[in-house]
């Protein structure tokens, strides 16, 4: 029930980190995968690695599209080219996210907050609309939005980002209600995962950053990818509207540690 052979996926922001690990997981399970990112060199290198390491050397199962999630033209091209290449679009993973602001909200640049919500929330809805119109309305599908534990509990470090992820979690629930039963929509909420994106959150050292976690380590991209692979498979066929925490137990402690 976890096999994805014959299905096609679009994973945004997938040249590295969590997005790359998700693309690798879906390829390993048999899907064909489109990955997007803003930088073409990094994107093409990622696509070559994915094909060699996770698609059995079959480059035809990996499509790389240079795209900016905040661009309507990029979003449309990503979805259109995926359907043209693979003949379908069964899985959408909205992984792209930005976090340009930190700290006290009274000092935050409102333009940066607006950009954060536009990328983390509005662009996600835009991708869902496009996937719906291009394939899923008629054929069904599964959608996973990459949220954050910062969207589930307040923190003083990345509050604007947390607010955008809280909105994304609510958006996930609304979409699950409106798009069922043929389209399932879930979210995954990681804590700190060892990626370039989150490096500032463990800049003082992994041991210090991971000390509050019951599991005594930070997350790896594969920890999130494994859960996404399950959620988009038939093994999760009665799950929709859920936000699955992948957090090493940090929320169970009542705090967010360094987040």
Characterise the protein shown here.
The protein has a single domain (8-245), classed as NAD(P)-binding Rossmann-like Domain (Rossmann fold), CATH 3.40.50. The protein has a seven-stranded parallel β-sheet with strand order 3-2-1-4-5-6-7, with helices on both faces. The longest helix is centred in the middle third of the chain and has 30 residues, at 110-139. Helix 2 links the parallel strand 2 and strand 3 (62-66). The protein contains seven helices and seven strands. With 259 residues, it is of the alpha/beta class. It is globular, with a radius of gyration of 17 Å. The mean pLDDT is 96.
Q: Which term fits the overall shape?
A: globular
CATH architecture label name: 3-Layer(aba) Sandwich
- What's the mean pLDDT score? 96
What percent of residues are in strands? 5-15%
CATH topology: Rossmann fold
Q: What characterizes the major β-sheet?
A: 7 strands, parallel
* Structural domain count: 1
Rg calc = 17 Å
Series of H and E elements: EHEHEHEHEHEHHE
Helix content: 40-55%
- Give the total of beta strands: 7
Number of helices: 7
CATH structural class: Alpha Beta
Contiguous uncertain segments of 5+ residues: none
How do the strands line up in the largest sheet?
3-2-1-4-5-6-7
- End-to-end C-alpha gap: 35 Å
Provide the structure class.
alpha/beta
């Amino acid at each position: 029930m976890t096999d994805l052979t014959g299905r096609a996926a679009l994973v945004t922001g997938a040249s590295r980190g969590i997005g790359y690990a998700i693309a690798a997981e879906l390829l390993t399970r048999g899907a064909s995968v489109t990955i997007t990112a803003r930088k073409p060199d990094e994107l093409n290198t990622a696509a070559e690695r994915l094909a060699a390491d996770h698609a059995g050397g079959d480059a035809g199962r990996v499509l790389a599209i240079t795209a900016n999630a905040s661009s309507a033209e990029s979003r449309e091209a990503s979805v259109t080219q995926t359907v043209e290449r693979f003949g379908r679009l069964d899985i959408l993973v909205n992984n792209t996210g930005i976090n340009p602001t930190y700290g006290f909200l009274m000092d935050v640049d409102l333009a940066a907050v607006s950009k954060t919500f536009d990328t983390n929330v509005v662009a996600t809805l835009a991708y869902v609309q496009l996937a719906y119109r291009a394939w899923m309305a008629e054929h069904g599908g599964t959608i996973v939005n990459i949220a954050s534990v910062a969207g589930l509990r307040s923190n003083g470090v990345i509050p604007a980002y947390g607010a955008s992820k809280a909105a994304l979690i609510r958006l996930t629930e609304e979409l699950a209600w409106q798009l069922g039963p043929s389209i399932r929509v879930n979210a995954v909420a990681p804590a700190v995962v060892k990626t370039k994106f989150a490096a500032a959150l463990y800049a003082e050292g992994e041991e210090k950053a991971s000390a509050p976690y019951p599991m005594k380590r930070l997350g790896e991209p594969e920890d999130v990818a494994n859960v996404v692979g399950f959620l988009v498979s038939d093994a999760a066929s009665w799950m929709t509207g859920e936000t699955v925490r992948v957090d090493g137990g940090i929320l169970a402690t009542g705090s967010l540690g360094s987040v």
